[in-house]
Amino acid sequence: MRYKSIVLASLGAIALAGCTKKEVVVEAPPPPPPPGSVAGSTAADRDGDGIVDGYYTSDGIYHANYVAPPPPPPPAPTRKGERG
User: Fold this and answer.
1) pLDDT score recorded for residue 22
2) Through-space distance between the first and last CA atoms of the chain, rounded to whole angstroms
3) Per-residue pLDDT tens for 16-46?
4) What's the pTM?
5) Is 3 helix (H, G, I), strand (E, B) or coil?
6) Which of 15, 22, 57, 66 has the most CB atoms lying inside 10 A of its own CB?
7) Dist CA 37 CA 45 (whole Å)
8) DSSP for 21-45?
9) What's the longest Cα–Cα distance across the chain?
10) What is the mean pLDDT of the chain?
11) pLDDT value of residue 32
12) Which of 61, 67, 14 is nearest to 38 (CA)?
């Protein structure tokens, strides 16, 4: 009798196992490329400091990120007063 109840319980568990719903995993979209790079390129950190220095295009060519130099400082004030 015990054997039959164990078999019945296991068959019921196997039959109900097919009814479980699987979770749908949605992948996050890839992050946008860094400023100045081309979509579909691979970021590159050539000096290993953790900051993206450039990017590689699909044909394997390295392109460095160009950062414009800061503007020159304003001219120093003159030493003459209001009356000259």
Assistant:
1) 76
2) 117
3) 777 667 778 888 876 666 565 566 677 777 7
4) 0.33
5) helix
6) 57
7) 13
8) PPPPPPPPPPPPPPTT--TT-EEE-
9) 117
10) 76
11) 66
12) 61
Tokens coding 14: 């196997």
The structure tokens listed for 27 are: 């992948």
Tell me the percentage of the chain whose pLDDT exceeds 70. 76
Q: How far apart are CA 44 and CA 60, in angstroms?
A: 11
* Burial profile 43-57: b = 16 or more Cβ within 10 angstroms, e = fewer: ebeeeeeeeeebbee
Q: In the beta sheet, which residues pair with residue 42?
A: 56
Give pLDDT, residue 76.
85
Residue owning tokens 């209001």: 82
Q: In what order do the strands lie in the sheet with 42-44?
A: 42-44, 54-56, 62-64
Q: Which two tokens mark 49?
A: 């400091």
Token pair recorded at residue 41:
């390129």
> How many beta carbons lie within 10 A of that of residue 37, not counting itself?
19
